[in-house]
Amino acid sequence: MIQKTTILNTSDITGVLKVNCFHLYQKKKTKFTGFGSFIKVSTREVMFKYKKLRKRKFKSIVILLKYRYVKPDGSSIFFKKNTCILLKRRVIAVSKLVTGCCIYNLKRKKFLTSFVKVI
């Protein structure tokens, strides 16, 4: 689960390596978010080429979690790290490529169709 002050990796090709979550977009007053939820992040680690991206704020969507996710059929899935994708607007991403894997729930929401390629 993602909460405030959680450090996440990015799984797109923007030059940002790590981000810090500081706001959760939710209707309910809960402290945690899950797969496919929108969060507000600030950059922490940036590649040396992309100095302009330091200390910027982005909206992002959570793709992978360390937390075990139990599907309705009883099977469970979990990953080794927390990752997200940076967004310009609600559904438009900053970069055109995504590296790594994505869960099936995001494919069903037609979010990944806005990308040129998923590597």
Summed up:
By secondary structure, this protein is mainly beta.
Q: What are the defining features of this structure?
A:
mainly beta; two-stranded antiparallel ribbon; globular; 119 residues
Q: Average the pLDDT over all residues and give the rounded result.
A: 85
- Across the major sheet, the strand order is 1-2-3-4-7
Helical stretch tally: 1
Alpha-carbon Rg, integer = 14 Å
What's the shape? globular
What's the main sheet like? 5 strands, mixed, barrel
Secondary structure tally: strands: 9
Relative helix content:
under 10%
* Sheet/helix structural class: mainly beta
List low-confidence stretches: none
Question: How would you describe what is shown here?
Answer:
The chain has 119 residues and is mainly beta. 4% of the residues lie in helices and 36% in strands. It contains one helix and nine strands. A five-stranded mixed beta barrel has the order 1-2-3-4-7. Helix 1 (104-108) links the parallel strand 8 and strand 9 (117-118). The model has no long low-confidence stretch (mean pLDDT 85).
